[in-house]
Amino acid sequence: MSLGLLPAVNAALNATCTVLLLLGFLFIQRRKITLHRLFMVAAFCCSTVFLALYVYFHVHAGVIRFGGQGWIRPVYFAILISHTTLAIVIVPLVLLTLSRALRERFDRHRAIARWTLPLWLYVSVTGVIVYWLLYIAYTPILPA
Predict the structure, then answer these.
(1) Is residue 143 situated within a structural domain?
(2) How far apart are CA 86 and CA 122, in angstroms?
(3) Distance between CA atoms of residues 123 and 42, nearest Å
(4) Does residue 144 lie in a domain region?
(5) Which of 10, 23, 62, 101 sits at 20 to 30 Å (Cα–Cα) from 144?
(6) pTM score, two decimals?
(7) Rg (CA), the chain
(8) Is residue 36 part of a domain?
(9) Which residues are CB-neighbours of 124 under 8 A, at least 6 positions away?
(10) Complete DSSP assignment for 21-88
(11) Is residue 42 situated within a structural domain?
(12) What is the number of domains present in the chain?
């Protein structure tokens, strides 16, 4: 796969993760435990593939600079900073939430899942927004 395609693939993985998370939430609300588990594990796998490809891309492509100017620049960086910060926080939260579910500690799973789900959704959605702003709406400044 071409290195230049990876940002679009990663955005698609983030979008897919968002849908899987929402479906997983819908199924737990409807007490469909097996479907909830299936969709949440699929979201975890999707995010894991995303993370591996993201690291691979940035190891090989380096830093990609935002090319937007004017009012969009502080908006982009506010989204990027909150996305990046929560992306770091969400990794241990997801692992802890998944671990509690797999060990059938459902009381503790529910307690942390109330925080994990909205943060994970925020990271997934803002990942797509960052991609769109960086690669579609504004021309990125590529490393020399």
Answers:
(1) no
(2) 8
(3) 16
(4) no
(5) 10
(6) 0.93
(7) 17
(8) yes
(9) 14, 15, 17, 18, 21, 47
(10) HHHHHHHHHTT-HHHHHHHHHHHHHHHHHHHHHHHHHHHHH---B----TTHHHHHHHHHHHHHHHHH
(11) yes
(12) 1
End-to-end CA distance of the chain, in Å? 22
Which range marks the domain in which residue 10 is found? 3-137
pLDDT tens, position by position, for the chain (144 residues)?
799 999 999 999 999 999 999 999 999 999 999 999 999 999 999 999 999 999 999 999 988 999 999 999 999 999 999 999 999 999 999 999 999 999 999 999 999 999 999 999 999 999 999 999 999 998 888 776
Q: Taking a C-beta distance cutoff of 8 angstroms, is the pair 73, 19 a contact?
A: no
Q: Which residues contact 76 (CB under 8 A, 6 or more apart)?
A: 66, 68, 130, 133, 134, 138
Total Cβ atoms within 10 A of residue 47: 25
Length of the chain: 144
Q: Which long-range contacts (CB under 8 A, 24 or more apart) does 23-26 make?
A: 25/117
**65 bridge partner residues:** 141
Distance between CA 4 and CA 89 in Å, rounded? 28
Q: Which pair of tokens denotes residue 41?
A: 């594990």
